[in-house]
Each structure stands twice: as C-alpha cells, then as structure tokens.
Predict the structure.
Amino acid sequence: MRIFQNLNVDFMGKRKLFYMVSAVLLVSGVVSITFKGLQFGLDFKGGTEVVVRLPRTASIPELRGIMQQADMGSIEIKSFGSSTDFIIRTEQKGVGSTISDDIKTALRENFNQEIEILQENRVEAKIGSEIRRDAVIAIFFALIGILVFIGFRFKLVFAVGTVAALFHDVILTLGLISMFTDVIPSLNLEFDQAMIAAFLTLIGYSVNDTVVVFDRVRENLKLFKTTPLEPLINKSINTTMSRTILTSITTLLVMTALMVFGGEPTRGFAFAMSIGVFTGSYSSIFVASALTLDWTTSRKMKITF
Amino acid sequence: MIVAFLVLSVYLLYPTYRDSVHQSNLSNLSGEDSTAYFDEHEESIRNARAGRLKLGLDLQGGMYVTLEVDIVELLAKLAKNEDENLRTIIAEVRQEALTSDEPVLDLFSSKFEERNMRMSRYYGDIRDENADVMEKLRDESEKAVDRALEIIRNRIDQYGVSEVSIARSGNRRIILELPGVSDEREVRGLIQETAQLEFKLLADENSILKALGNIDRVLLGKELEEDEDTTTVDDPALAEGEVPDDELRSDEETLADADAEADELAEDAADVTASDEDALDAESIADEAMTEEEQLEEWKKENPFRALFSQADEQTLIASADQRERVNNILRRSDVRDAIPDDVSFAWGAKPYVTAEGMDYYEFFILKRKPELTGEVITNARAQTDQAGFGGAVVTMQMDAEGSREWARVTGANVNKRIAIVLDNAVFSAPNVRQKIIGGNSQIEGMANMEEARLLEIVLKAGALPAPVDIIEERTVGPSLGEDSINKGLTSFLIGLAIVIIFMVVYYQYGGVSADMALIFNVVFILAVLAGFHGTLTLPGIAGILLTVGMAVDANVLINERIREEFGAGKTIRAAIDAGYSRAFPAIIDANLTTLLTTIILYQFGSGPVQGFALTLMIGIICSLFTAIVMTRVILEITLDKSPSIVKFG
C-alpha cells in the first residue's frame, strides 16, 4: 500500500495563501484567549479540590445546592468523566485544609452514606505561581535550546524558521484549546501540569517534523547545487510527505486511544497533543520552510552545506 | 548484543512479574491462609518487592505532601528578647513573604537595614555585625529544616508506612511520598504535631520482668500472678542477666552512653540461638534430660512473647525488624494492654543496628511511664569531638535553671541507671548516668561517629526549638482511582500499540513486521530500564510510553520510505536497504536529539507527574534509537540471508 506516491505539489507557490490561513487562525486564537481566556487548574490557581464518587448519579446544580447550603462560599463543580464522579473545588485554602473535610461532611449528610474520595488536592497559591514560573522558564529554555541546536546542525535561517513555526504551533494550539474549552462535554481542557507537558511534547514533535523536511532540503542542496531554493524545497516536501502523513497517523492513533480509553487525567493532554500533530506537520511546510524561503530570497542569500 | 539486552531486560523485569503473581495469590487468599502464604514465601515476596517496577502514587494510591519550614515563625522563636520593633518587622516579613520570591531571611535583614537597626539586639552575640548574625540565622534555618526532616522521618518510621520517600527540596522544603496512605487527617496530625522530647528512666528489673511475664501469661491464656517476687523466681534464666559493665571515664558531669554497649549487643543478636540458649542455662540444670533444641522449643512455648526477641533479659531486649511488627501487634491487643503494669511504657530504638549479615535489629525499651523531664528545659545541644577524652564524638547539652535543678535531682538519684532520650516515643539514646550532674551541663558519650552525634543534637534541639512546618501542597489519590487509572492506562496503551502494529504491517508488509518487533522490544526495554534504575511508573509515564510508541515508528517510517525510494530507483533490495538506512540516519538523529532536548528540559523544570512523563519519554527516545536503527536492520539482514523472498516493503 502506498499513499502520495510521486507527489508533485507546488507547496511553496501557495505559501502566501497559507500565510493568510495561519494569520486568520492565529488572530482568532488570540481573540479567544483574550476574551474567553484559558481555564487554569488547581496547579496554577491554588486552592482545594476534592474528587468524589457519589453513590448515585447527580447533577452539577444539585451539588451546587448542597454546597450552598453548607455555606461553602464560591465553589466550582465539574464533571470528572462520568455522571457519578465530580470535582468540587474552591479557591479557599483554609487552615489545616479543613475545607476538604467540610465538603466531605456536607456530601455525607446529603447522601446519607460514606462518600468515596477519589482524589484530594490542596495547593497553596505560592506553589501555583512557582509552577507557572517554571513552566514559562521551561518553554523559554526549550525554544532557546532548539534555536541553538538547529542553528548548529543546519543554518541560522533554518533555526529562525523552526522557532517561528514553534511559536505558531503553541499559539494556535492555545487558541484552539481556549475555543474548545467547555464546548465538548466531559472533555476537560483545564490548564494544569499535564497540559504544560503536552505543550513541551508538541514542541518536540513539531521540531521533529521540521527537522525531517529540513534534512531532506540539506541533502538536496548538496546533491543539486544549481537548482533554485524554491523548487528544491518543494521537491523535499513532496518526497517526505508520505512519511509526514504516516507518522502523523500513528501518533494520532495512539493519542486517540489515550483520549478514548485513558480516562479523565490524560484526556486534556491527548487532546492538546492531537492538535499539535496537525499544527506541527502544517507548520513544517507553511511556516518553517516558507519563512526560510522568504527570508533567504529577500536577502538574496545563498545557502550551501 | 541484542540477545544480551533482552536477557538483561527479562532479568530486570522478572521481580515485577513475581511481585504481581504474589499479589494476586495473596488477594485470592484470606485471613489465616494469606498469613501462611506470606510466611512461606516471605523471602521471595521481599525480593520481588525490592526489585519490581515501582508504581507512582497516582497509580497505587497514596499521599504526596510538600512541607515548608516556617522561617518567620522560627525567627520569632529564636529572638533573645522581643519588643514592639521586632514584632512589627516579623509581621511585615510574614506579609511580604506571601507574595515575594525573595528568601525570607533576605527580606528580614533588609527590614533591619531600612530601619538602621542592629540585628545583634535580638540575635547572636551583642558585638556581632548584621552579616555575622545573618550567617548564624542562615545556619539555624538550615538546621531547622534538618530537624523537621528528622522529626518527621522518626514519626513516619513509627507509623509504619512502607516505601516512604522523604526528601529535602530546595532550601526549606520537604517532600513526603506515602504510598498506600489515604487518611490525610492522620498524616496531617503526624506532621504538624509538636515534637515531644522526654527523658525517661528505664524501668527497674522487677517491673520489666513483671511486664514481660504478664504478657507471656496473657498470650498463654494463664491467670496473672500478682506477686512480683514469684514472677522473678518464675524466670530463673532471666534473673541472672548480665549487668552492663560500661567503661566509665572520670570526666566531670558526664553521662556515659549505652550506645556502645548496645552496639555490642547488636552483634550478639546476630547469633540468635546462642543467646537464647544462654537464657536456658538455668532451666537446663533443672532438666538435663532434654536436648538443647527441645529445651529451646519448650522455653519458646512457655514464653511466647519473649520468644519473639533475639535476646531477652531484663537489661536488653532486641528484636529483628521482621519481629518488630509482631511485637507491636501483640502490644496493641486490649487484653495484653490490661496486663501491662501501669507504671511502664514501651518504646523502640529509633535506629536499627545492622549486623554483618545485613539484618536490621531494633532495641526494645521498657521505660517508666512518667518522664523525668521534658525537652523544653534544653537550651542548647551541640555535637562535637571530645576534647578531654579520646577525641570521639560527643554531644553536649545545656539546660535552663529550672531544668538543671530537676536534672541534678534525677541524675543524683539514679547513678548507674540508664535514662532514655525519647523523641515522639522513639528512643534515640539511653546513656548510663555516671554521676549527679549539677549546673545542667551534660555530656553524652559513646557515639560511633559524628553523624550519630549530629542526629542526637538534632533530636535534643527538637524539644527546645520545634521546627514549625506548613503543609503547602497535599495530593491524595484514593486506591480506587489508582486502580481505575492503571486499568485505563493499560487499556489505552494496549489498544494504541495494537493499532500501530497492525497499521505498520498493512502498510509496509515485512518492513512493518521488523519495525513492529523493534517496537515491542522498545516497550520491554523502557520498562526494564525503568525497573533497573528504580524509576517510578506514573499515569503520565504510561502516556509517555504510548507517545514513544507513536513516535518511535517514525524512525522506521523514515527508513522504510527511503528504502522504497531507493528500490524504486532500481537498486537491488539489499542495496536499497543499505542506502535507506544510511540516508535516513542524519534525519533520525537530528529529529530525536531535538526531542530529547525538550524532554530533558521538561524533566528539569517539571515536578512530580510531569517528571514521570519526561523520564519515560527520555528513556523511550534513547531505546527507540537502538531498536529502530540497529535491531530492525539485524532482523532484516537475517531474514534476507535465510529467506529473501519474504522481505518486501509494500
């Protein structure tokens, strides 16, 4: 079986069109992030959360009522993957975390039996801000590291193209996560540590993909020294296309398996990663390669390896 | 080499398999049967446990706690004198520390600078410059973290949770990982309770014998005997125990430590039967007809409680780590508790003695219930080398005026008796009192090394200066969620793997088969490496392995696509394979190195679960380079030699 055998598409010729597509997607992503925002999880906000399994199915309004009766103040209630499992969360911290005890007691009284506690977390705001800081530092260092590595193994132009593609992927994925938040029921797209991991992984994946295309460009530059850069990049993309599609498919397959069967804690991660697979492959062609091409032609640079 | 790797992996994963077999056997049995099974396979179970692939707290359930030593509180406590100024400064620092990233001590010193005040008014020596005081405070806060760590370690040890991890993190944090614990309230209590340091005299011989005798009698279902003398006579073997013959040096105001003696005892403890036979001497005179073994059995039958100890006389009781739990179980029984005299209490030695065979032995103390003194009277304690003596490690201890008076009375009345230093019901040292100590300056000798002396210093200070800790992060995963996560993680993993395997075979035919074999070996290698380095498998870790599966085939996709290209260009299959591997190589290396780079950064800055993910991904990338490039090639070449017709790339 073969797909994309002897593909010959003029990808670079259409790059202006796809710049527009990217721009529209990026702008709508940024708009969504600005106005709808992202939902931050407990890791970032600090507070107390209790994940309970109730003896029978219940609705969020019902639980909210119980919590209001118990005078719990501002409470956030979310489904945890099934109609009996819920996350109950408050930003209050409470000395000695008596808050989680209060939540448990209120539920116990209302359901007239012992409530199974699946998970219980309490994080001080201080820790939250540290996690946030570490995440920013981690992503920053990852980008710098990649810039240096690609600059060293290829050429600085390629590195700039790659990092631009990474920014593109990260912002686009953030935007899509913001848009999809609270749209699909039981798909929890809260920003927590697992999400940070997903972003760093999708950065890794996107670079991986870009490197494969650039590797072919590097090889072809050595083989066909007289061919202009544009057809050469096109040729490289065309010959690596079947690999790009195949790897995307296998990665998407496992991420889908994780999303469907992996349960609540890894669902958001798998979702972000799946978007990352698309944007990563797309950006290798229409951001990394295209920008590298535009940069070199506008400066009339000649790349040789 | 491939075979060697495989053998190594199987070897590393075997304990994990054994452990799961034992666990399922154990859960199928109940009550008596399971205890019997445990006894029978004890060693095998233990070995399997030690070598198995550890599951993270999110998979097996448990508690993760981050503690922070409250430096502000410590500063308030350390002050020599307190006034309005200091109180204001402390209140301000407390407020600012909530939002500032700056270390508390730096905030504190800048407050003094602002006001142009000398810190020596409150801390250290009056002539000290601010910088000197700061150094001392830094040292104190450092020690406070050590102290908190030691206090908590001690309590957790007593609480009896297995496979606990207690680690310092940064300069004022402690991270606790308690697998299988889900009672947050109890753990919170353990952590935040103020440390209790007490000086307790060892109970006198008669009380000890009475307590032991009574417990034995309850266990045998006999009536208790009220008369103490009878009890003593009842156990002639125990009555003639050795009297400790410490080498007492004539230092002034000195307590001789019994630790040295206890070390000897630990050696004795190694040969269990020998000491038990000693204890039998008296009885063997009474009944020479019995063989030694029969006598030992007889004695054990008559004294079931004492039989649990490797050495049991009225001076010292020593039990191996395994027996410790049994002893504790007996002591928890209510009928046993009723039989114990009111004036005694029990405590274990805090640290085990390790014998040459690597076995842990714990000393068991029977103490007077009422403490002679409590730790608040201690004003200072310091581990140092003994100037007057032979330069061994000693700990000096000072007490306040009231404490000193009481101490003089206690030591005066108990010369040549042992007094135990008990922190949260664990005995850290039980030195022999050499003479009456007036003035409150005492010296404790006989420490094996400086480390042991430092530990005792920490313990002594715990009474005087508690290390206040706050729980700043607390995560508990209930056992049912853990089980849920394992099942779901495994399901999604197997399904994902199966889909990829089928996909590859359909698409690349034999090229896919070799890639699939490499993929399966890759997964085995990842798990083996994880088990070999005592890594922990977490739910994000499973996600990491799954992602590796998706991405590891990338290398083979690159190679196979290349082989197809070269084959299409008219090369022979062998030449196409050669060219495919060598041409795809730079792309694979560059791509994997960048991914590795991001995972290393992720590991460095991530915490807990994220690190688990980064770790498996990292191992996965390295393993996949080997399996995807080296292994598939070997597989292809072998098949090419044996049956070239099946090698097809679709």
Observations:
- Chain A touches chain B through 73 residues (CB under 8 Å).
- Chain A has nine helices and four strands.
- Residues 12-41+128-298 of chain A form a domain with the Multidrug efflux transporter AcrB transmembrane fold fold (CATH 1.20.1640.10).
- The beta strands of chain A are 47-53, 76-79, 85-90, 116-123.
